Amino acid sequence: MAEQDTTEACVLPNMPALPATPQDLSQDIRRYLEYHLGRFLGCDHFYLYESLTYTIRDRIMSDWRNTWCLYKRVGVRRAHYLSLEYLIGRSLGNHLLNLDLHEPVDKAVKDFAISLEEIEDTEPDAGLGNGGLGRLAACFLDSCATLGLPVTGYGLRYEFGMFKQHIDNGYQVEDPDHWMRDGHPWEVERPEYMQVVKFGGRTERHIDLQHRAHGRWVDTEDVVAVPYDVPVSGYRNKIVNTLRLWSATSTDAFNLKEFNAGDYTESVASKNEAENITMVLYPNDASENGKELRLRQQYFLTSASLQDVFRQWGDQPLGEFAKYNVFQLNDTHPSIAVAEMMRILLDDPNKRLSWNEAWAITRQCMAYTNHTLLPEALERWPVRLFKQLLPRPLEIIYEINARFLADVRQHWPGDTDRVRRMSLIEEGPDPQIRMAWLAIVGSFSVNGVAALHSKLLTQGLFRDFYELWPERFNNKTNGVTPRRWLAMANPELAELLSEQLGDGWQADLSRLSALRPFAENDDAAFIERWQQIRRHNKQRLADMVKKETGVTFDPSALFDVQVKRIHEYKRQLLNVLHVVHLYDRIRRGDDGDWVNRCVLIGGKAAPGYQRAKEIIKLVNNVAGVVNNDPAVGGRLKVVFLPNYDVTKMMTICPAADLSEQISTAGKEASGTGNMKFMMNGAITIGTYDGANIEILDAVGEENFFLFGLRADEVAALRGNYQPQQYIEADADLAHVLALLESDHFSGIEPGLFRPIIDGIKSPDDPWLTLADFRSYVDAQGRAERAWRDQAAWVRMSICNCAASGGFSTDRTIGEYNSEIWRLEPLITSV
Ligand code: 26Q
After folding, report:
1. What does the alpha-carbon distance between residue 823 and residue 78 come to, in Å, rounded to a whole number?
2. Is 260 exposed, middle or buried (0-12, 13-18, 19+ CB in 10 A)?
């Protein structure tokens, strides 16, 4: 492979954009299909998707190169977003929207006797992430491109993404997601920028010819990182940013060593060990501690990405590096970057900075985002594992810690307990490295993802550090991209918005506030349109539910939706208790003024999270009984929707009436599904937690069903929580539990749900589910009253959409930029 780095030269490109009339597009699609892929009309639809994607990628290429060249000019400050996860979903529709190519492509594909929709449906959902954190990274990249910010995403090119879920006898079964089996036509392989990442071996002290001492990392097992670039287009602005995903392969040298020693088979097999690193995404959305392969993944991403940034920096003065580069760490997963940056600056023969010089640069260009308040989810790695796998970074962490603790001792003389608490190394029989502490110590900015979360961090988990460096801590409330979550997911509403507000809301979501008068003035024509659109969206979801589960949803019923990862703190169980309560009311004949309701629950359980899997089984069993009980007669429907993913959410969020955001207060860092629902006109039933609080502030209490204990009340109740009292004081709750305990939903397997029931009845239930039951049921009652007055409900729906302008990631990224990154937006002439 040629060593030349053409983009470094960056001669101003003379690369005209390709024409994009329906004729041009149709011609190119045909050429790709027949001359490149060797397929013909009547082939599997995937090949048409592939041909169309190449055709569109061609139309992106000139802007992509232009953008890259503009970023490469001297004096351009750039940000590098490091994340182990990007939950991208499908890309074709997104690029068509951004490039305004929907219409011509729609016409072009007519030549192939297929609809654009059918082609779009063959694109695999790129699930390189678990949930909120991964999807946030994808929304961020979208907004960075739209705002013209020079930001590159760095991640891993997992061969297998988030597992596919199917349900067998009510239980989750995981199927591997070989999403690239038929190729990934969006990406461009760039072997010319490969990097070598070291593992294992041992360290030496070494004195160089200039008598400078430095560390050396030798006898390593090296793995090659090959980058694959994926274009990230901005909304109609000719900007195309890059997501650079690393794939692991073995080095020739690595193979050769064993090959020459005569063991051919071993040497070829060693390739496997290297390639394992990017084989599969870890499907846990809370940390799974101690897995060596996961640590390999984290270091592999971090080292390859930092080396890539230094390659681009070339031989410019290192003293200027922090002026032109900033790294945003998406949680602690890439926080080894702090040590890796030090290693490069100290050990690289072309750098060899002093400790103080290296530390000043490192600390000036790292920024860390925290996404969790659960102490058990804070990442820790056994020192023993580090010693084996990353001996040189470990030495550096020890040195960072020694110098840091000296500062702590100076700041709080004699406070040994504080030193123990703040040490990067947690002592014990199996000492652990505290990755969050490493990230905080090595960064100039530490942020939470919603106001409450950021506040609780400084008062709880990070309190010691906040007392030392208050200026480092800040909040950046999450958002979602309105291009995917409104313009693409809800095309009919998008059209109405453009008619009423003019085009432009897609990149300036604050304009949605102009919708409020339509609600306040009871504009009949507008309200009629609104209803009609929601009705269509609900029909689309009903069709999906029918196809996936066989259950019929009636679009005139209230659609009550909770989709997110299955987790005890998210309290899908509270939702189930309410469903059982509704069912119990029907059975008791307490069904005056009934509101027909369709409850949809979806989400994946981490494969090793037993309780989460039991919850899925419970939802399915309750659904089976409720949907088939003639006494219910369609007044209540319940489904567990299998394999919830980004693509499904695009059908779900425009069709929900009620958005369930019911976590135990103080536990959900932000939530982002809550924002997608609100933007599309759903009303939230939620606790005072995460970004729910900001949603409530924006929309007003009259447009939100608030319930439950607050975070401080949750904390106060812990320790003297007596669930039995709630049961004794509440006949409805007693009925619900009695029904569950009677095996009404587990007739053929008596006692099946005993562990779940015991869990919520235990004084040790950390999620205080029963404490919020009454308040939740009352809030559901308020929702039903509001629903009975459809005129009032539509007003609330419109108000929610109108108030959602602040939850665009354009706002979030604007704040990251003005307060952390300080990049100059690139202005292009469109
Ligand atoms: C860590 C170590 C080993 C294996 C897995 C992990 C791991 C992977 C993913 C730990 C955590 C995650 C994901 C966390 C996550 O998605 N958090 C969510 O982030 C959202 C975006 O900020 C918030 O809205 C949610 O509140 C938060 O739960």
Report:
1. 7
2. exposed
Per residue in 446-487, pLDDT tens?
Answer: 999 999 999 999 999 999 999 999 999 999 999 999 999 999
Instruction: Give me ligand 1 centre to Cα 286, in Å.
Output: 6
129 touches ligand 1 (CB under 6 Å) = no
Going through 566-621 in order, the beta strands assigned E by DSSP cover 597-602
pLDDT digits (tens, 9 = 90+) for 272-315: 888 899 999 999 988 877 799 999 999 999 999 999 999 999 99
Q: Among residues 453, 564, 604, 635, which one is catalytic?
A: 564
State the pLDDT at residue 651: 98
The number of C-alpha atoms within 13 Å of 283 and in the hemisphere containing its C-beta is 22
pLDDT (tens digit per residue) in 200-245: 999 999 887 777 778 899 999 999 999 999 999 999 999 999 999 9
Helices 572-588, 773-788: inter-axial angle, 10-degree rounding: 60
Q: Is 478 close to ligand 1, i.e. is its CB under 6 Å away?
A: yes
Mean pLDDT of the chain: 95
Question: Is 667 a catalytic site residue?
Answer: no
Q: Distance between CA atoms of 729 and 804, rounded to whole angstroms?
A: 39
Residues sharing a CB contact under 8 Å with residue 21, sequence separation 6 or more, in sequence order: 104
670 C-beta closer than 6 A to ligand 1 = yes
Residues written for the chain: 830
Q: What is this structure's pTM?
A: 0.97
Dist. CA 799 → ligand 1 center (Å) = 30
Q: Pick the atom of ligand 1 nearest to 131's CA.
A: 16
Q: Is the CB of 666 under 6 A from ligand 1?
A: no
